[in-house]
Structure formats: structure tokens, C-alpha cells
């Protein structure tokens, strides 16, 4: 196994409480490059293993203790039971699951001017999104292959099966939606109270 690699962000606290380790194994017949933030981290040769230590629980691979790259572009992950996504008050977890999309898919949780979140094919990604996100009503976004019957271009009298990739939005549970509604009402109340206080200062 290759030497330990450190993966962190500038905002991560570098202490033992936030250290997560993950073993990467390439069981394919060709070398591959492991990415994060759309940049290469390291290369894995066929049959090679690599151990990564992470100081930031929000990076793509922190939720897993092992990631195996299998033949046929398949990926097998093993969850780390000690991992939990750090969230600020008013944030909720959203899972991105790129089953059948491009090697890298991306979403902009709030607007197109912010930094996107990337979903690598076969590897679940867990992110924290704010209340104002357009995806707040969903617990998971899946890039999934959808089969449908379409007219054959060469033989218009025949239908053939065609496959396309669609984003499937899976809704949250009622309890989660109730929690989100309560958080929105609490925020609105605070904003109204602040506005009233500002108006009093002007009189």
C-alpha cells in the first residue's frame, strides 16, 4: 500500500477528532486517477491500494472507509459508521448519486454564481444545503438511466428501446419537510423582528 496522503481544506480543524481514513483499491485492468474538486489527487495502477487521511468531514470520500474501483466502471463503497456531515443551523443534508451520468456531474444548490458541488460517477456525495436552496425539498438527486421506446429513424413503423440519463429528485420525508417548514417560519420571524427594530431606530 502506498504512503499516507493528507487531504484537507483550509477551514478544517486539524485535530484527531476530525481525522477520517479511506483505502482506495483499483481492481480494474487499467490505471485510473482519483479526483477531488475536479483536480487529480493521485493515480492508482491496476491492483494498487492507496490510503488517504482526511481532516475535513465534508470532502467527497470522508464518509467511506473503503472505495473499490471495479470492472465495467462500477464502484463499491463501504460507509464509515463514525462519519457525520457537519452542518450549520438551518442547513440540511442532500445526497448526490451519479449512477449513470457523465464521469463528473455538478449542481449549484443556490445560484449559478457559487461554487458547484461535484458528483463523481458511482460515488455518493453528501452535502449540506441552506434553506434557500432550490433543492431543499429533496433528500437525494440521482443521475439515472431511463429506458424508453422511440421511433426507429431507419424504420418509422418500428419502435426501439433507447436509453437516456435524467436527474431524478427524491422527496424528503414528511418529518423532514415539517422540520424545514418550522425552520423557515423561525427565520421569517427573526427577519421581521430585525426589520421592526431597524424601523424603530429611524423614528
Helix-strand makeup class: mainly beta
**Backbone CA Rg:** 22 Å
Low-confidence stretches: none
Indicate the percent of residues in helices: 10-25%
Compute the number of helices.
1
Order of helices and strands: EEEEEEEEEEEEEH
Quick one: how many beta strands?
A: 13
Portion in beta strands: 35-45%
Tell me, rounded to a whole number, the average pLDDT. Answer: 86
Biggest β-sheet strands, sense, barrel? 5 strands, mixed
- What is the strand arrangement across the widest sheet? 1-5-2-6-7
* Tally of structural domains: 2
Give the overall shape: flat
Q: Ends: how far apart? A: 70 Å
Name the features:
mainly beta, 5-stranded mixed sheet, 13 strands, flat, 4-stranded mixed sheet, single chain, 203 residues, 2 domains
Can you walk me through this structure?
By secondary structure, this protein is mainly beta. The protein has 2 domains: 84 residues, no CATH class; 88 residues, no CATH class. It has 1 helix and 13 strands, in the order βββββββββββββα. The strands form 4 sheets. It has a 5-stranded mixed β-sheet, with no helix packed on it. A hairpin with a 7-residue loop joins β12 and β13.
Amino acid at each position: 500500500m502506498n504512503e499516507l496522503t493528507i487531504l484537507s481544506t483550509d477551514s478544517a480543524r486539524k485535530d484527531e477528532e476530525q481525522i477520517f481514513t479511506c483505502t482506495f483499491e483499483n481492481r480494474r485492468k487499467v490505471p485510473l486517477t482519483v479526483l477531488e474538486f475536479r483536480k487529480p489527487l493521485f493515480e492508482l495502477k491496476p491492483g494498487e491500494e492507496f490510503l488517504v487521511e482526511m481532516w475535513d468531514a465534508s470532502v467527497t470520500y470522508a464518509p467511506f472507509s473503503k472505495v473499490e474501483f471495479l470492472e465495467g466502471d462500477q464502484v463499491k463503497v463501504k460507509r464509515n459508521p463514525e462519519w457525520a456531515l457537519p452542518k450549520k443551523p438551518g442547513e440540511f443534508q442532500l445526497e448526490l448519486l451519479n449512477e449513470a451520468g457523465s464521469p463528473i456531474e455538478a449542481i449549484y444548490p443556490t445560484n449559478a454564481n457559487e461554487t458547484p458541488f461535484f458528483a463523481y460517477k458511482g460515488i455518493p456525495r453528501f452535502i449540506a444545503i441552506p434553506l434557500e436552496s432550490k433543492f431543499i425539498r429533496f433528500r437525494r438527486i440521482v443521475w439515472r438511466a431511463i429506458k424508453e421506446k422511440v421511433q426507429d429513424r431507419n424504420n418509422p413503423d418500428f419502435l426501439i428501446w433507447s436509453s437516456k440519463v435524467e436527474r431524478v429528485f427524491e422527496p424528503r420525508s414528511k418529518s423532514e419537510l415539517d422540520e424545514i417548514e418550522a425552520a423557515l417560519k423561525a427565520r421569517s420571524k427573526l427577519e421581521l423582528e430585525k426589520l421592526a427594530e431597524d424601523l424603530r431606530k429611524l423614528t
